[in-house]
Design a protein that fits this description.
2 copies of one chain form a homodimer. Chain A has about 170 residues and is an alpha+beta fold. Helix content of chain A is about 40%, strand content about 15%. Bound molecules: zinc ion (4 copies). One zinc ion binds next to helix 1 of chain A. The structure holds a DNA duplex (30 and 30 nucleotides).
Chain lengths: ~170, ~170
DNA sequence: AGATACACTGTAATAGTATAACATTGCAAG
DNA sequence: CTTGCAATGTTATACTATTACAGTGTATCT
């Protein structure tokens, strides 16, 4: 799954490094590169607005509201009406380049686009950072729970609120 | 945990019967009775608005938006401004008598109030009914995922979208 | 009972999130 | 070229949620 580097790639290892010190410039540009490759392979267009929105989301391990994104777009000369942001965000979500975080009414860049995953988010209530956790076991448990009553799980949103290691250390 | 009946109590067995044929009048009145007892035991007041909102939520295994609830309240002579509904819903959620379903921006009655549980919801995309699934294994998996990177899970929302047995049978 | 305190409800105003509908632009296939 | 389609821009509107303040009832303490 991971791409190849000459040197170790802190952005590409599991588990997610959102809460750890890491080379985030690499982490972000790596995700962007992978999204570009995937878009090309799928024959969909990562247009300027869409690409810029993804870059904005990638700047931090944090979820941004549609209107936060929109304000930044507007300041950079793109349209300044809600659909501009929502359309780009919807596109990114469809392509698996970003996820919607329902608990926050916000959106976050996907940190490992291309790998099939139904994301599980760990959201720090103190610093607002968030991490995409390995969700396979969770998804399995959810499907098992569904199966017991004949329910077929097609999609899921799993979001935990809590304290990240840093904020826990700081005694929040 | 379950209360006692002379006869079998379809509303009080696990797993949740939302998608199965069951005596829902019983199922609902049972949940209401338990909420009343819990409120009394805790010294909190299940006032007329609050109680009515819970009854409304209990009418079906379905989530209702705050404004759906509000419209019904207004039609029955209660206040007709948003806070009337939101305050009652917040109260019910705090007391564990109802849950917020983030995926739907809506609220659903808890079908087994009093039992400690972080709920997992199974939401049918065809008929909109929803079921509270046993969430302990899911919660455990989520906490394990968090622990791996030092994240402490305090609360979680787990919501699956899919097809219930009936709608699956009907070929939706 | 009267005074006090506080929880609950009512209401108005506003903030925040999201979509529908239609006009315009820009590229791609025929 | 022109026809079609995808993407963007723009207006208006719908839906969700909170803040702030006023009034009312209920419990408690003299
Ligand atoms: Zn990073
Ligand atoms: Zn944190
Ligand atoms: Zn029932
Ligand atoms: Zn169904």
């Amino acid at each position: 799954m991971a791409h190849l580097h000459e040197t170790a790639c802190p952005g590409c290892e599991s588990p997610d490094l959102a809460f750890a010190r890491h080379d985030h410039a690499h982490c972000a540009s790596d995700a962007l590169t992978r999204a570009e490759a995937l878009a090309a392979a799928r024959g969909v267009r990562l247009t300027p607005v869409r690409r810029r929105v993804l870059e904005i989301l990638l700047e931090e391990h944090r979820a941004l509201g549609a209107y936060d994104v929109l304000n930044r777009l507007a300041a950079e000369g793109f349209g300044n009406q809600p659909p501009v942001a929502y359309r780009a965000l919807d596109f990114l979500e469809e392509q698996g380049f970003a996820h919607r975080v329902r608990r926050l009414n916000a959106f976050a860049a996907c940190m490992h686009p291309g790998e099939a995953h139904s994301p599980a988010f760990l959201i720090c209530r103190a610093c607002d950072k968030l991490s995409e956790a390995p969700a396979a076991p969770i998804r399995a448990a959810l499907e098992a729970a569904g199966a017991e009553i004949g329910f077929t799980v097609e999609g899921s949103s799993v979001e935990a609120l809590g304290l990240c290691p840093d904020c826990r250390g700081a005694g929040k």
